[in-house]
Amino acid sequence: MGWSKHHPVGLIHNSPALSYRGYTLFATNGGNHATLIDMDGQICHRWESQEGIAYAQLLPNGHLLFRASPPTEEESGRGLGGASSALIELDWDGNKVWEYRNPWLHHDYERLLNGNTIVLVWEELTAEFSDTIQGGQANEEEPEVMLADKIIEIDSDGNIVNEWSLWQNLDVETDIICPLHGRREWTHANSLKTTQDGDFLVSFRATNTVGIVSRETGEFTWKWGPGEVWHQHHATQLENGNILMFNNGAHAIMPAERSTLVEVNPETNEIEWQYIASPAMSFYSFHISSAERLPNGNTMTCEGAHGRMFEITPTGDIVWEYINPFFAPDRTGGVANATFRAHRFGPEFTGFVGRDLDPANYGNLNRLYS
User: Fold this and answer.
1) Residue 52 burial (10 A CB sphere; 0-12, 13-18, 19+)
2) What angle do CA 305, 343, 66 make, to 5 degrees?
3) Taking the CB of residue 259, how many other CB atoms lie within 10 A of it?
4) Percent of the chain scored above 70 by pLDDT?
5) Following DSSP, what letter does each residue of 227-238 receive, concatenated?
């Protein structure tokens, strides 16, 4: 999507008869608040944190679980995309009720039904093993020791009760870093979700790979992606068992770089649905971004680099569109409205029971950004 300071922000379009009615949650990269808006783009609730809110999820009880700003420690993921210093949980009124601090945590997490939380973290490889990893562009300023991805499961007290070192079941001969990507990390996992069977669905940006990892053995039971998607994000499993993802299209060989949404059948490795914008180049986000299938069959999309959120029908018609109006400092020294992901929650969501979602509570703010 093209961009200039004159581009309108806020609600761009809404077709009530065709869209999935609900509330959309998002946060601006580098910002300190998460915002919940209605279908008219009106703010209905907001959480704030001085530690920054990089990416937030709503829990079934109405609490907000989010990644904080990047760490400041030298020996950590500082400077890497998706890095965060902590996971923090706020209640509906913004009171902190839980936190987990780890300077290696990054990108994604999920609260499990048993109350535990799975989290992506980095771990260091040896220099010897790092030398065996293929691909990528070497940078003399980067450490000789590369980073790899690990899943940890923590309990409500922050104790690690399980862990899975994902790199131990990869193959240096086939899991090759994109030649235009750096070599600080091997895989750069950017999403983590549980499957219907309780296994782990992960997305590796650096190797253009989406895979399912057995919770029992840590081994990959399915891997797919190289040559089909490029630097994809937010892989989720649908009710039909297919895998939906945001294919960023960065560094794509053919066709020209552009983003698409892809739904692949893991049984056949066939793409059964995809969204290609018209014109194709009007939809592109080099990094971040998300795709979420809604109960009415539509797909909620976040074109993250531009802070653009939109809902499309199965035939690709845009029935709701909103541009994030909240800007924050970015890594280049400027300001941007980049949005890691966006989530839509229906009015029947359990976390909304008994909650005040009247946009009049944010009247002044809504008038400012309407």
Assistant:
1) buried
2) 85
3) 32
4) 99
5) TT-SS-EEEEE-
Cα 230 from chain centre: 15
Q: What separation in angstroms does the CA of 182 have from each of 108, 205, 227, 252, 310?
A: 21, 11, 19, 16, 31
- List of residues 6+ apart from 165 with CB closer than 8 A: 123, 148, 150, 218
Return the C-alpha torsion angle 304, 310, 316, 318, nearest 10. Answer: -140
* Distance, CA of 285 to CA of 306 (rounded, Å): 7
Backbone angles phi, psi at 299, to 5 degrees: -125, 120
pLDDT band at 1 (very low <50, low <70, confident <90, very high): low
* Residues 109/117, Cβ–Cβ less than 8 Å: yes
> How many C-beta atoms lie closer than 10 Å to residue 277's C-beta?
19
Non-local (6+) Cβ contacts of 17 within 8 A are none
Classify 41 as helix, strand or coil.
coil
Burial class (CB in 10 A: 0-12, 13-18, 19+), 270: exposed
Q: Are 217 and 205 in contact (CB under 8 A)?
A: no
CB 32 within 8 A of CB 53: yes
Sign for the pseudo-dihedral over CA of 48, 50, 55, 57: negative
Burial of 219 (0-12, 13-18, 19+ CB in 10 A): exposed
Rounded Cα gap, residues 308 and 316, in angstroms: 16
Q: How far is CA 165 from the centre of its chain?
A: 21
Nearest to 353 by CA among 110, 93, 60: 60
Q: Residue 101, by phi and psi: left (phi above 0), alpha (psi -120 to 50) or beta?
A: beta
Q: Quote the DSSP letter at residue 185.
A: B
What are the tens digits of pLDDT across the range 2-47? 667 788 999 999 999 999 999 999 999 999 999 999 999 999 999 9
